[in-house]
Amino acid sequence: MATHTLTTENHDKTVEDGIVLIDFWAGWCVPCQRFAPIFEESSETHEDVTFAKVDTEDQQELAMRYGVTSIPTLVAYREGIPVFSQAGALPQSALEDLIGQVKNLDMEEVRKAYAEAQEQEQEKQQG
């Protein structure tokens, strides 16, 4: 098994480097059950990507931190920056396409846009 269990305790360390895909799921969720083998299969073929799973029943605080209201929800990080978030199960081809897009991101541009967004958020909170 190439997926990792993500918790509030190991979250920050897990997402700080490289490419990380996070699958928010629950055992009772039928779409989650259908997406699980797709996520697992991709984890076996992309050794350069960390595949993490969050059980939303067990890790409610982490799910709330992300604002997860529908599952499955997939979140992608690259170099500590969240670059993608979407609810709904993806077919294998769409997941593979997403992984390719995340790998091909111009991280200089992403870091710049992320820094600007954080500055605007801080200004909003202060003003």
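(the above was protein one; protein two follows)
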Amino acid sequence: MNIQPPYLKRGDKIAIVCPAYKLKKSIAPAIALLETWGLQVIQGKSIHADHFQFAGDDELRTADFQRFLDDTAIKAILAARGGYGGIRIIDQLDFTGFHKNPKWIAGFSDTTALLSHIQAVFHTQSIHGQMPASFEAGTLLSLETLRKALFGEELCYTYTSTATNRPGKAEGVLIGGNLSMLVAMQGSVSEMDYADKLLFLEDVGEHEYAIDRMLRMLKRGGKLARLKGLIIGAFNEIEPQEIPFGQTPEELIMDIVREYDYPVCFNFPVGHIPDNHALIIGSTAVINVNDNEVTLSYQ
């Protein structure tokens, strides 16, 4: 059974930190929005730190994250942005206080490393969703799904896929995130258990051959064989190559999982896109997949 942190309520304090790449713009608009939700926002030192490409050196980012993991008055920690760097601090963090007093940790992209770690080691739910640096570009609906996830309000997603899905209905614990980061977790204590799970995947800026290679690595490691279902989000910003790969991400994915019989849906609104819907990692969900229509709800 996965641990569900207490949902937020108006008046709660939350923290924003940068566990990876440094901020390049103000997140004041995002803070203002969070305050309209009735939250008190505390900014970590990493928000304004600058160390080459990082939001401060590893020591600063570790201490910043640790401060809010240990502070019981802080009810959620939002990663301000992704980039690269979370994997550099995971093993220096002490989650003892977090495990005793769990709280929501939210983000996506590089933050997948941290979300994967707390699911794998502490079996604690977390939120894959918009980050303060992406609030301005995000759709109102995507931001509303983040708010609902944090406050424990009902979430149910229905959308139409532009690609042909593999129909079916499945129930299972939801795991996933950024494909590159999930592959980077393989063989470590931070690797999630894929057996009997609903897996969602997204990535950005990767060529088709790299997507193919990473998915085949997961398949060869036995990660794709025992899934309950596969949810494919956005695989965007793929630059054309001089010699085409010959398959779209949707085509190569279906090729790789063709031998399995679980439902597969494409174009789920999750990833490096404005309409990045919040998904609760570690929660039990149900997907109902038709040729083009998809519904995801939580149990």
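Reviewer note on protein two: The chain has a mean pLDDT of 97.
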